[in-house]
Automatic annotation (TrEMBL):
<keyword id="KW-0805">Transcription regulation</keyword>
<dbReference type="Pfam" id="PF13404">
    <property type="entry name" value="HTH_AsnC-type"/>
</dbReference>
<dbReference type="InterPro" id="IPR019887">
    <property type="entry name" value="Tscrpt_reg_AsnC/Lrp_C"/>
</dbReference>
<dbReference type="InterPro" id="IPR019885">
    <property type="entry name" value="Tscrpt_reg_HTH_AsnC-type_CS"/>
</dbReference>
<keyword id="KW-0238">DNA-binding</keyword>
<dbReference type="InterPro" id="IPR036388">
    <property type="entry name" value="WH-like_DNA-bd_sf"/>
</dbReference>
<protein>
    <submittedName>
        <fullName>Lrp/AsnC family transcriptional regulator</fullName>
    </submittedName>
</protein>
<dbReference type="InterPro" id="IPR019888">
    <property type="entry name" value="Tscrpt_reg_AsnC-like"/>
</dbReference>
<dbReference type="Pfam" id="PF01037">
    <property type="entry name" value="AsnC_trans_reg"/>
</dbReference>
<feature type="domain" description="HTH asnC-type">
    <location>
        <begin position="8"/>
        <end position="69"/>
    </location>
</feature>
<dbReference type="InterPro" id="IPR036390">
    <property type="entry name" value="WH_DNA-bd_sf"/>
</dbReference>
<dbReference type="InterPro" id="IPR011008">
    <property type="entry name" value="Dimeric_a/b-barrel"/>
</dbReference>
<dbReference type="InterPro" id="IPR000485">
    <property type="entry name" value="AsnC-type_HTH_dom"/>
</dbReference>
<keyword id="KW-0804">Transcription</keyword>
Amino acid sequence: MEESRKSFDAVDLRILSILLKDSRTPLHDISRAINLSTTSCWNRIKRMTDCGVLESYTVKLDLAQLGYNDTVIVQVTLDSHSEQTLYEFGRALESIPEVLEALLISGDYDYFLRLAVKDTRDYERLLRERLYTIPGIRHSKSSFVLRTLKKVDTPLT
């Protein structure tokens, strides 16, 4: 895989940039934008897919349009750091659809969670019924996101 990373050139990055903006961009349009034949463009996309750089094609949703008006950042500390505890905590988070992202972190807390909720009452319900029922949580700290200043999934533009 390390060898494949070295083989990405400016044309590959331009293809990725186009797909990041709209993964439904037709191959013909991508080829034209980067001045490359459709066959060559397809071969590059296939190579990047085969080596795992292109993981999937997806859509972006406006969560507020679906009723999820607030984002909450929750920092969590666990009682134990055993492999079993970490595994079980991760499995429990997988069953909570409102958990958009869960990161094991260094520092004062063990986990950084990003949650989508409808409002403060919905967040209270989520805490009571789902999050605080997970065994092993020692402490948590929550912050409501007031405004998103920047949100990207990759440093490519």
